[in-house]
Amino acid sequence: MPTEHPPSPWHRGEREIHDRLGVSERMEVIGPKVIRDFMPDQHRELFTKLPDIFVGAVDGDGQPWASIVEGEPGFIRSPDAAHLAVGGLPDIGDPMGTLLVAGTPIGMLGLEFHTRRRNRMNGHVVAVDRTGFSVEVEQSYGNCPQYIQTREAVSSLREPTPAGAVEALDVLDAEAAALIAAADTFFVATYADPDALGRQVDMSHRGGRAGFVRVEGNLLTIPDFSGNRFFNTLGNILATGRAGLLFIDFRRGDVLQVTGAASIDFDSDRINALQGAERLWSVRVEHAIRRRGALRRRLMFKEYSPNSLMTGLWGPVPHTHQRA
């Protein structure tokens, strides 16, 4: 009897990058094995231990937003392998708050900073009430601990976000630029609209040595280091040209959410300006939200991921032109 092959989890943007880099055959074999339509028990267990979860969704203008929802450990439950129930909601002033309605496609990332464990889940919101929301799984998969900097909690506050702490920015001011330029970690929401599967939103993590994000006015340039070759984030950018980023000041609890047009640089000489970069991608910020003291937890940096130590900081950037 012929064996039925599971469907490929990759959409057009991801396949295009796989083809470009010569890994298509390998990824067509790997993809169905590691990307599931349910959560394995170890993934469910990790989510239930976390004090926060990173989420991504898309607004009515097609702008993706990345955010974080906090609670006490145990505020996330997994009633079965196909569902997560989050006992918390985004803060007032968070763009994510208006996006969580039944039927909304959503990306979720669980990350345990002190162990560098992380799991990703894409799905859609099935219910929302005054205390939280529930999500049905469409894709679930784990990621290796590459480029995750180890952090430990040093305190947890219970005060609400101060009134008037939400600031809307159309241009990155000096304070926002400094936060981004000093970051060793951020989170990114992207999406694609494959016809057969409907909208897929992905929430991912990026890390490097502090200063790995280059800030030039409203233009952010980010290196793409060697990874798992899934290219979920870059495949989505290739498909839709949009990205939403979340930067956190872990000491002060400030968050900066930005969204805008995104593009990928596969071939220019600018790639050589950063040690370890295989490609570059950029986001031209169109909207930003800053919320001061928004987070309860304060985290202390402990150590760089070994992979991050293999990457350098930005050097002189050559004039952009295509390689021969």
From TrEMBL:
This is Pyridoxamine 5'-phosphate oxidase family protein. The lineage of its organism: Bacteria, Pseudomonadati, Pseudomonadota, Gammaproteobacteria, Lysobacterales.
